[in-house]
Amino acid sequence: MDQYESLREKLSEMDFPCKYMFKFIGKEEKLSELNPFFQDAEIKTKPSSKGTYISFTAIIIAMSADHIIDRYKSLSHINDIISL
Description:
globular, Alpha-Beta Plaits, alpha+beta, 84 residues, 4-stranded antiparallel β-sheet
């Protein structure tokens, strides 16, 4: 079973095109690696209360479930970030 199958099932209930929010948490230097993949997005960042981690939120206009899953796959090489 594809690791994205559960996500694909949830996304199949959505009407496309739509806004989709990607959320990640990690160290600032790792999250900066996400920027090139979200040049088409509205991006917000926020430090944790102790400043140890940064949350990264990117909102895009998604055209399909595959569009979202392909974006996640393109980020899979970035280590030490948590996708929410």
